[in-house]
Amino acid sequence: MSTQAATEDLAAVIGLEVHVQLETDTKIFCGCSTDAADAEPNTHTCPTCLGLPGALPVLNEGAVEAAVRLGKALHADIPERTTFHRKNYFYPDLPKGFQLTQYDAPICQDGELEVRVEDRRREIGITRAHLEEDPGSLQHVGGQIDTADYTKVDYNRAGTPLVEIVTEPDFRSPDETRAFLAKLEEVLEYLGVYDAERDGSLRVDANISMVPADELDGDVDASLLEEANRTEVKNISSHKGAQQALAYEVTRQRNAIQRGREVEQETRHWDESRGITVSMRSKEAEKDYRYFEEADLPPLEVSDWKERLEIPELPDARRERFREEYGLSAEAASKLTSTKEVADFFEDVAEQYDPDLAATWVADNLLGELNYRDMAVTDLGGRLSKFERLVELVAEDEITEKNAREVVLRGMLDEGQTPDEIVEAEDLGKTSGDEVQAAVEAAIAENPDAVADYESGDEGAINFLVGQVMQKTGGSADPGQVNGLLREELE
Ligand code: ADP
Ligand code: MG
Ligand code: ZN
Questions:
Q1: What is the span of the domain harbouring residue 333?
Q2: What pLDDT digit, counting tens, does each position of 381-436 carry?
Q3: Which pTM value belongs to this model?
Q4: Selection from 228, 233, 227 nearest residue 177 by Cα
Q5: CA angle at 272 for the pair 181 and 201, rounded to the nearest 5°
Q6: How far is the CA of 184 from the centre of ligand 2 (A)?
Q7: What end-to-end distance do the CA atoms of the chain give, in Å?
Q8: Is residue 421 domain-shared with residue 460, that is, in the same domain?
Q9: What residues are in contact with ligand 1 under a 6 Å CB criterion?
Q10: Are 167 and 222 in a shared domain?
């Protein structure tokens, strides 16, 4: 077997289970606030999310709506009715002793998401997406999970709504998973159901096996994938982490097979600081969880929600439309659609002023300066509309492009001032015609030598005079216009 395996070309087969925290005001089965980032531990809790006897769950409509919107974006089947089950296990982060989740009737089934890696398009099948509650969080004091002196538990997170998205084993490289996760986040952000900035808002379990490469040509035999020994890597929290953890596993599994060893079917832990995966435990089987239907939550009829709820134009479609409608390059269209907020802002500005001006100002100037500061649009915290006034000042020719870019934009980003405040404080308003004319006359009167040189045919002398006028007007006059006025005056 070893010589056979060693000479065979191996290829990676990967499937993801992605947990996404849905943005709702309250938890999925109680009224506790989900906004617990700065809260004292265990202050956002109630009898329901602590699992006290007799407390009953009430399903949060907002979480269901978010899942239905996601299902539509993934072209998934949304069944007539969906149910909740108890997944039983003991762990200190789970006060009830079970997690409420969905089992045989998840809210989304059989969808897909298209991703692009370099120039290849790949369609990734979505097996299912289901709603569930997040457990609490554990903090190990004085060491890691196995070496800590003691562990603290915080139930503020217990009951936060999650959607778990399970893909088909359709990925063929770690790069494809990275592209998929980026795309998924983009779609979730467009749907307004997700906040990428929130800690732990995306958590990934990555399943990977290595199979003979020629088996993956054409239609893949399902039983081959079923039988392949795979590892499930847990504790991944970013696109980059997924790519790195999987690249590590590809090498580790390939080495094992080439040395004639079998890859263990097991759960592994991604240790981000060391950049390696480590064995955790053998995988639990489904029967270990003793799933049974939650009697305190009646089945939910969702078919009419699907009709009722609308979703916005999604990133790919919007990108395509921006290219056609505004004649943007692929790169500009891609930058301008990276978040819905930026895309909406660009369209607003493009409609009011001019698409080219809008593209330059949003894609190059604003996003460029943000990028330089390592900031995201979200860091502007609702101040995006202030930048519209800046574009207006440029469009109406009230300040020069150069001042707008170098003084006003930077002042807005670094000092948080409004454009008008900066224009006022720095006296950037373009000088009016009369003032320019006065400066032209003064420059001529004050520089008889230069005037004489010009009159004797020295063309360079005019540039000197232009420079003088620019100085007098604090750089706010238009040099071409000044040149013309000087010539007229000297005729
Ligand atoms: P489990 O019940 O063990 O979690 P599932 O059948 O639910 O298993 O699949 C979990 C994930 O494993 C899915 O994302 C699926 O695509 C992926 N998967 C299935 N077969 C393979 C394989 N041969 N290699 C890698 N991933 C796989
Ligand atoms: Mg699983
Ligand atoms: Zn609660």
A1: 315-426
A2: 778 888 888 999 888 888 888 889 989 999 998 888 899 898 888 877 776 667 78
A3: 0.84
A4: 233
A5: 40
A6: 19
A7: 97
A8: no
A9: 13-17, 166-169, 207-209, 225, 228, 230, 286
A10: yes
